[in-house]
Design goal:
Structural class of chain A: alpha/beta
Number of helices of chain A: 5
Strand order of the largest sheet of chain A: 8-11-14-17-20-25-28-31-34-37-39
Distance between the termini of chain A: 84 Å
Oligomer: homotrimer
Largest interface: A-C, 70 and 71 residues
Helix content of chain A: 10-25%
Chain lengths: 340, 340, 340
């Protein structure tokens, strides 16, 4: 969509240095931009690219204005400005309502006339699909589930039965929501007996869920994902997990059953969070952290080891596995020396 | 399903303290229970909730009987009692046999009349589907595969060709079984040549497999999952892995090719198990363990670091990366002191 | 397929010790082989199995010829010889071109007559499917995407819109390519605003991608997977990642946004690679490595801890969390001793 620079400046709340009527047709990196482009600088280390950009205009902070060779849109938060400008230039295209002839909608399901159901989607009995919802190709919505208005569920995702999904939710392809949690009791003879998973999953409004992520239903009671939570790809969320609003979870993280995560947390990629523990509001976990205790205070937490060359690492690991023993020995040697 | 307390007591083998004819309609946590509910206490730390529960009856151990404000079902293993009671109150609903008109069954496939094939399922040539099996919507069963009786394969799962699945298996949505293992030979020029993966996968009876888990076919010979194994979501199992009976594997764990896992192991979430190694029977791995050597003796094993605040962690990691060097220096200093 | 030993020797470039006309019908491990089989020895530790094999012929290095009880095919690289022989004995079966009546192909899509489209596949508007391509059951190809010649996309995979896939690519079931990257700007009130992901994904020729792997589209510009890259199951690749040619990535690895990986790297299973960093050509990462800094030199790198028994591990971890403090104390004690 083509927009004038003046309209963009107004939309993102920036101060325009340049031509109000200059037409912008795309948004690009500083490096790839051309005379149809607006770009942005949100990280000081790209200052060199700013100086040589061919963009028509750049969204940036006041401190970088002197280095800008083009028109400028000055704002306190250029990254937010970029996000807002991109949404203006690339608006979500709306699909007309309707049910594709190759979709499979049970007669007892209720689909709003403004919702769109793609080919090979299966909508089971008792399902409700609200206004402007989009159900992608080969999506399965299990019986008695509810899909809120403006919610988009993309290709091949599976929503199991009785799952409640709010409005303006975006679910990427290959997601599974509401499958059984991993719950078994040990039999006296050593085998396992499955525990029926009779709870469900509640996904509140404005949640986004990445490709091939899985969210299990509760054993008793529900798994709950609160408003505005953002979940990346291949995240695994166990039964009866609770995630507070606006928390963001990066890819490949696993959260075991009955963990309670606070509001506005930022959980890095490939973290592992054990079950039945609590994480406070505003906790930041760096990538690949292993959380096996509750974290009751906001702050930044870490656990894995950073990378090193393999030879040094082997020696250090060998020491690590004798760490306690070695400390005791050294302490003892010092004690002996002091005695003498 | 409504059951009398007497029937539940008998079914789970518990001693009833209360009214035989009291009707139970659901199972709930101690906190959420009402007068239609039975609940359970399997963990001492919920004793407070026991004292204030509104459940009609609670399944518990003898030692907690005095704290129980309601009827009680006394048993040595309340968690198993809960599992059995839940199965009684929430029996698996049976689907009548049949092939949905929107399913796609090859003429050479053999589907038992008591099996049910959902819309958009694809059953390829030579497939056998046994009695009472359930094939969910958009499930693909590749040519010459076999699905045993009472086995349920849920939505969007893919079973590749020539895979043998036993009876009473439960496979959750989005699973892929029998895709090629990751096998390549290096070409002299540095590229890769794919090795045909000509083995298959055998899944024995009573196995459960979680959402979006992947199990590769063997390169030569088969990948084998023995009877009663329970696998959680997003687990990755490489080619020619062997998993012994009743082993349970929590979510996000990866097992590399040709690893052999014993019987009755419990593998925590997000573990990584290297290939071509052996894990004995009855091994317990705590979550996020990295197994790069065989474990030849039963026991509890661990490897990752637990969580700490980021500042302390940074200092410790810096020390860790000089750990071997530092130990040598301290030893040398002590030697020098002793000399003098 | 049945082949003569002479033909196999010629095809794999090996020196034949034995009967040119001996017929080979399958390839097996040394242990499972029978008189119809060829086998191979690529690892010295299987020498015992070599001595007792019932194979008709074995592919091996010259040094093991004396231990071989059968005909032998001698080559410098027996593993490559095995790969080539397996490909000869188990050639890829070709499907005739055509569109299954239960496939759903948009009228504006262009499908080569030699390509095959399986039941329930959905080919959206503007898609191009080139010669001999195979689109599996329930695969979704989003609008304006391109599938190169001889490329095979297996069951239930989702290719989002405008993705370009080269020729001779093999994509296993359940893969998602081109879903939105994980990109949000923080709102002043603490919530998130989604950044449109307007780039795409380029997959070059001869790439293989494992089951349930996810590859996100670029935010601005493209995510690029270069020629000959091999990716295992359940790998997560973030937006704007670049992977150089012939790099191999084992299962469960996650690569965060805008990471640049060199050529011919070998990335072990379950590694975590942070975003906005660079990994040089020819880097080897052992399994479960956490990469949070650029690696600018080829070599072998590692980071996690290896496994130990849980009791020792607990003590070592406790020491680790006091590691910096403990070193300071010991140093101070030594200083005090020296003074006196």
């Amino acid at each position: 969509m083509t927009c004038s620079l003046g309209d963009i400046a107004e939309h993102i709340g920036a101060e325009l240095h340049g031509d109000n009527d200059c037409l912008i047709r795309n948004i690009s990196t500083l490096e790839d931009a051309d005379s149809d482009s607006i770009s942005f600088l949100s990280n000081h280390r790209y200052i060199k690219q700013l100086r040589s950009t061919r963009a028509s205009a750049v969204i940036l902070a006041k401190e970088h204005l002197d280095d800008c060779p083009s028109y400028a849109l000055v704002t306190d938060n250029p990254y937010l400005g970029y996000a807002l400008a991109a949404r203006m230039l690339y608006p979500q295209t709306r699909t007309d309502g309707g049910i594709h002839p190759a979709a499979n909608v049970h007669e007892s399901a209720s689909v709003d006339t403004s919702a769109y159901i793609c080919p090979n989607a299966v909508i089971e009995q008792g399902v409700v699909v609200d206004a402007n919802a989009y159900i992608g190709p080969s999506v399965i919505i299990g019986r008695d589930s509810v899909v809120g208005k403006d919610t988009r569920i993309l290709a091949n995702t599976v929503i199991c039965n009785s799952v409640i999904i709010g409005s303006s939710v975006l679910i990427h392809p290959g997601v599974v929501i509401g499958a059984d949690g991993f719950g078994f009791a040990e039999k006296p003879d050593g085998g396992w007996i499955k525990i029926p998973q009779i709870g469900s999953v509640l996904i509140r409004d404005d949640v986004e869920i990445g490709s091939n992520t899985t969210i299990d239903r509760g054993a008793l009671g529900n798994t709950v994902i609160e408003r505005g939570v953002k979940i990346d790809n291949q995240v695994q969320i166990g039964h009866n997990v609770y995630i507070g609003e606006y928390t963001a979870i990066a890819g490949c993280t696993g959260i075991a059953g009955s963990a309670t995560i606070g509001k506005r947390c930022r959980i890095g990629g490939a973290c592992g969070i054990s079950g039945h523990l609590e994480i406070a509001d505003d906790v930041i976990l760096t990538a690949m952290s292993a959380v096996n205790n509750s974290i009751l205070k906001s702050g930044v937490y870490s656990s894995p080891l950073s990378i090193t060359d393999n030879r040094t690492w082997r020696r250090n690991v060998a020491r690590f596995h004798r760490l306690d023993e070695s400390f005791r020995k050294i302490r003892e040697e010092i004690r002996q020396i002091k005695k003498n």
